[in-house]
Amino acid sequence: MDLDAVLPEVGEFGAYQQLLLYLVLLPCVLPCGFHAYNQLFMAARPDHWCRVPHLDALDPNVAKNISIPLILREGEYIHSQCDMYERNYSDVLGGAGIDANLTTSPCQYGWNFDYSRYAATVVTEWEMVCHRDFLATLALVLLGVGGLIGNYIFGYLQDTLGRRPSFFIYLFIECFFGIATAFAQDFVTWTTFRIGVGFTVPAILGTPYVLAIEVVGPSKRTLVTILTNIAYSLGLVALAGVVYLVRDWRQLALATSVPFLSFFLYWWVLPESPRWLLARGRFDEAEKILRKMARVNGKPLPANYMLQLKKKYQAERYVQRKDVEKEKTRQYGVMDLFRTPNLRRKTLIITFIWFTNTSVYVGLSYYAPVLGGDEFLNFFLAGAVELPTYIVLWPAMECVGRRWTLCVSMVIGGVACLATIFVQNDSMTTLCLYCLGKMGISSSYVVLPLMASELYPTVVRGLGMSTSAVAGMLGPIIIPIVNYMLYYSEVIRKVQKVIRYCDILNLLKP
User: Fold this and answer.
1) Stated pTM of the model
2) Using CA atoms, how far apart are residues 11 and 26, in angstroms rounded to an integer?
3) Which long-range contacts (CB under 8 A, 24 or more apart) does 8-11 make?
4) 202 preceded by cis ω (within 30°)?
């Protein structure tokens, strides 16, 4: 609160904060979205069918009709992707008739792929289909596991080393493994590199967000939060454009990693958080930043401000006769989040809501490319529909507060998602409900970090937010498995139909 008291005098959102935000912090948001979702397209699974070498010279459609059986899926006959007819294809080419009683077998000579939408993906290059189709899901799960571990460690780094060095450590890790991904020669190596990338997702978003919150006054935190999330959503829209233009997975890995090497130039302009420095007792470094902030904003730093702050700091911190050096180097742990009843209650509530939000938000983002139709357009819409929410979200948070805005957003998102159960055969209505659900959950996803950053004390803010985010990262680990099971499990599809039937019967009851 001491820094909040002086910021209005040196500028809550003056030229210094605006330059820092627009030129440094908002661009730093982009790597998170790019590396969180580019794997969906690197591991895209195009249409495929069994390869029969004897028929390579024929038109693909003719070859499929001769060699691939039809199967019934969701009321429609399609060519099997994993089975072929057992027959003498030399005789077929010689003019032999078609036997109606042919037996089938799994693909014996590999697969043919539809390259009309993708030049190459890891699925087509390493034939990760049929009995190997779970590998793409496994890689996505391991990306989430890497994020869970990295986010937890990042909390300690951010509160121990500071916001600034933590960002560059994670930027180096992300760029290194992101570029290395393009040179992987097998699935194991590629997955290992993707785990390295996942280690930084979404932890690398922590520094620009927390730092933006900590260098502005209380009245501008909502604005900064909105701007940060607009930058993130624009990043998803930009990624949709990149994946549309770059259809080869190796080139895509480079296109979504190499440009971020330029962010190392921010080493000379990205400051440390003055709030964190003051909380750690590093007054001289904090004073330099505050004086620079006051100078750029054209306002003087109040006289004797730092001296008074030091005295107050000493009175508060050393009432238990702890020496200065010990207090400066004190290590805060997860147990500090549960030390008092008030903080314990806040931690549990924030963590539960964070898990719910992350699971739904990431699940809808993962699901966008497979909604049907153009996967690039779907992903573009998934990012674009978030932008209109900020028009309503900003005044809502200012007028009704964080809690009610969070509650209403989650209710709207949840109801829209549940409503899709009744319109699964109407693709346009499903898409509209999907967009409404994405808007609702993205709104709550904006409010929650802001609310959490204001509730957690400064000395454990990074740790508290990362701990809650770690629980949220369980969602990206579980969601790919759920999607995989829903797509391939006939049992689950039948259960879904029974549930929908029961829901309809309940609605018809008087």
Assistant:
1) 0.82
2) 20
3) 8/217, 9/299, 9/300, 9/301, 9/302, 10/290, 10/293, 10/294, 10/297, 10/299, 10/300, 10/301, 11/293, 11/294, 11/297, 11/298, 11/299
4) yes
Length of the chain: 510
Top-ranked range on mean pLDDT: pick from 21-35, 50-64, 88-102, 335-349: 21-35
Amino acid at 471: A
Task: Kindly state the average pLDDT of the residues 320-349.
Answer: 68
Angle at 141 between CA 137 and CA 147, to 5 degrees: 150
Q: Are 80 and 71 in contact (CB under 8 A)?
A: yes
Q: How many CB atoms neighbour CB 269 within 10 A?
A: 10
Other CB atoms closer than 10 Å to residue 371's CB: what's the count? 18
Query: 69, exposed or middle or buried, with CB in 10 Å at 0-12, 13-18, 19+?
Result: middle
The contacts found for 74-81 with CB under 8 angstroms, 24 or more apart, are 74/493, 79/49, 80/49, 80/50, 80/104, 81/47, 81/48, 81/49, 81/111, 81/129, 81/130
pLDDT score, position 241: 94
- Matching residue, tokens 């998102």: 413
| Contact by Cβ (8 Å): 87, 110 | no
Predicted local distance difference test score (pLDDT) of residue 388: 84
Q: Percentage of residues in the chain with pLDDT exceeding 90?
A: 23
Nearest Cα neighbor of 20 from 172, 208, 163 is 208
> Which pLDDT score, from 0 to 100, does residue 77 have?
81
DSSP state of 224: H
Q: In this structure, what DSSP letter does residue 22 have?
A: I
Interior/surface letters 280-314, b for 16+ CB within 10 angstroms, e for the rest: bbebebbbebbeebbebbeeebeeebbeebeeebe
**Residue 12 near residue 214 (C-beta atoms within 8 A):** no
How far is 33 from 243, CA to CA, in rounded Å? 13
C-alpha to C-alpha distance for 469 and 449, rounded to whole angstroms:
9
